Amino acid sequence: MIQRAFQVVARCGQQGALLRAPCILPRLNPASAFGSSTDSLVSRFCPETTDLKDYALPNASWCPDMLSLYQEYLEKTKSDGWIKLPSFKSNREHIQGLQLPSGLAVASDKDDCRIFTRCIQVEGRGYEYVIFFHPSKKKSVCLFQPGPYLEGPPGFAHGGSLAAMMDETFSKTAYLAGEGLLTLSLNIRFKNLIPVGSLAVLNVDVEKIEDQKLYISCVTQSRDEQTVYAKSSGIFLQLQLEKESSQQ
Amino acid sequence: MIQRAFQVVARCGQQGALLRAPCILPRLNPASAFGSSTDSLVSRFCPETTDLKDYALPNASWCPDMLSLYQEYLEKTKSDGWIKLPSFKSNREHIQGLQLPSGLAVASDKDDCRIFTRCIQVEGRGYEYVIFFHPSKKKSVCLFQPGPYLEGPPGFAHGGSLAAMMDETFSKTAYLAGEGLLTLSLNIRFKNLIPVGSLAVLNVDVEKIEDQKLYISCVTQSRDEQTVYAKSSGIFLQLQLEKESSQQ
């Protein structure tokens, strides 16, 4: 344990930016799978069979643009290397078999938790989204349809709902592309308001991985690419994962 | 109408930053109350009597820290110039009597809309928050307690939920301090994770108002100020409001 703690301190000391990084830094496990390949991360993240409900599937609330672009990317999963990410009610489900570093786990009622972007379960009212990821290109595309419970200005999505959608898409991308676990920064320039009920497409790229940090950029726009809703970037910190559990 | 449109274009042309600003810029009303005093904005924003439910009131889910700091600021509303802002289900209620510029209003079902930060109505599960505003200091304080439906890493608030809380607090502050209506940018540096169910305090300052833009900064920390959760800044665009309606 002392050795692990020392490694954390040493790691922080090596990087100025991390001196002010999260204090709740988990204890690192020297025997963990740090440096896991993207393929192995993806295969554990996307179980072939599961009883968990996948919320990233079409429902009656999806607008025609969202449905057709979903079908388009689904086709690309068959031949073009894209992967459709499942989306469960909680991150606790996503990390089954992966186990977050122990410092990130606290005791709380597992049954009553929801990942923020699945907080509203009535179809079409809150977040409707699906993320596709391309392992070798280190790109993601998120199809996002904000519902009327995500309102800011009347008739338009709250800027914060888009910020959260970005953070969530960045998080999953950073995790799969390089074990990025913690958001260090998020910068957003808003260009246009997204009408409630319409489709916004987040095009996400991992720009580089350097000094244990992933640099991610995103352009959010309408399907026809004629309207840019926002441009954003984020930096994520790589953290070692605990050993794979025996559950899978 | 042509004159109004011209004014918008001219305004954009004057400011480089606005050349890439929202295309859904509303038509400006030359006869509007642009330049309203903070006092008049606050008095219209905080009706003395209303039938609308105010969600920014204590309930059984509030943790002791949240309750006691709420009481502390409530005392300051009596003698120190602070104002407790009401928080209704939708921004449509907030702007009664103010009317957003016409370009920002679209036809949609009024009865089925919620402001994003009040999207979850079960007490304690989603956003619990209350904002206090000081007109002459141009400061705000938001007491924020994230519930288990706002989860990111197990046991901690999603970074996006804090981003949205910032954007919402910034929005209300920008509006009351100087008719700031649209978020142009939001920059966040995350320092520590916020445990679900605990209190985070957002300390918000309007740094300056220049070239029709409000520059806002925020430090989010624990009540004892020993843990900084995030530092952030935002820029908001001032927009002319339509004339006050006769409803109030």
UniProtKB/TrEMBL annotation, chains A, B:
Catalytic activity annotation: (9Z)-octadecenoyl-CoA + H2O = (9Z)-octadecenoate + CoA + H(+); (5Z,8Z,11Z,14Z)-eicosatetraenoyl-CoA + H2O = (5Z,8Z,11Z,14Z)-eicosatetraenoate + CoA + H(+); hexadecanoyl-CoA + H2O = hexadecanoate + CoA + H(+); tetradecanoyl-CoA + H2O = tetradecanoate + CoA + H(+)
Domain Thioesterase spans what residues?
A: 155-221
Which InterPro entries did the record assign? HotDog_dom_sf, Thioestr_dom
Listed GO cellular component terms? Answer: mitochondrial matrix
Quick check: keyword Mitochondrion in the entry?
A: yes
Where is it located?
Mitochondrion
Protein keywords? Fatty acid metabolism, Hydrolase, Lipid metabolism, Mitochondrion
Spell out the protein name for this chain.
Answer: palmitoyl-CoA hydrolase
Q: Which GO terms describe its molecular function?
A: long-chain fatty acyl-CoA hydrolase activity
- Indicate the family of this protein: Belongs to the THEM4/THEM5 thioesterase family.
Task: Identify which top EC class this enzyme belongs to.
Answer: hydrolase
Q: What is the lineage of its organism?
A: Eukaryota, Metazoa, Chordata, Craniata, Vertebrata
Stated EC number for the protein is 3.1.2.2
The organism of origin for this protein: Prolemur simus (Greater bamboo lemur)
Which GO biological-process labels does this protein carry?
A: cardiolipin acyl-chain remodeling; fatty acid metabolic process; long-chain fatty-acyl-CoA metabolic process
This protein's source sits in the domain of life called Eukaryota
Query: Sorted alphabetically, which Pfam families does this protein's record hold?
Result: 4HBT (PF03061)
